Amino acid sequence: MGSDCLFCRIVAGEIPATVVRETATTLAFRDIGPKAPVHVLVIPKEHYADVATLAQGDPALAGEVLATAAAVAEDEGLLGDGFRLMFNTGAYGGQEVFHVHAHLLGGAPLGPMLARDLA
Ligand code: AMP
Ligand code: ZN
């Protein structure tokens, strides 16, 4: 993927980001438009378009993304009061950047899971 992908460019150091944790295979950095007091994006360094592609293509790497998210949640002091971890996926999921990323949100009560009840 590389130069066409915003998050691949962050991994490559071509676009700055506020990195809070890095492992051999994952990167966690603060969202540029935070929706909560803590809003961190956790990505695999390798390009996968979305969480389904990642989980089906490399389940171990998907687990490493979760482990990094949990470590950041601990570092940010979120384990006691809780947090939300979510992967927007595709059109209905509202995904805008097609390099898989987990949103780690916390630091305040986050309200209902969805703004509207769609059931
Ligand atoms: P999504 O709608 O799930 O694809 O979320 C994309 C997220 O990426 C949004 O929350 C944006 O605020 C965030 N974002 C876009 N550009 C950057 C950037 N350069 N650095 C950090 N976060 C970004
Ligand atoms: Zn990418």
UniProtKB/TrEMBL annotation:
<dbReference type="Pfam" id="PF01230">
    <property type="entry name" value="HIT"/>
</dbReference>
<dbReference type="InterPro" id="IPR011146">
    <property type="entry name" value="HIT-like"/>
</dbReference>
<feature type="domain" description="HIT">
    <location>
        <begin position="6"/>
        <end position="115"/>
    </location>
</feature>
<feature type="short sequence motif" description="Histidine triad motif">
    <location>
        <begin position="99"/>
        <end position="103"/>
    </location>
</feature>
<dbReference type="InterPro" id="IPR036265">
    <property type="entry name" value="HIT-like_sf"/>
</dbReference>
<protein>
    <submittedName>
        <fullName>Histidine triad nucleotide-binding protein</fullName>
    </submittedName>
</protein>
<dbReference type="InterPro" id="IPR001310">
    <property type="entry name" value="Histidine_triad_HIT"/>
</dbReference>
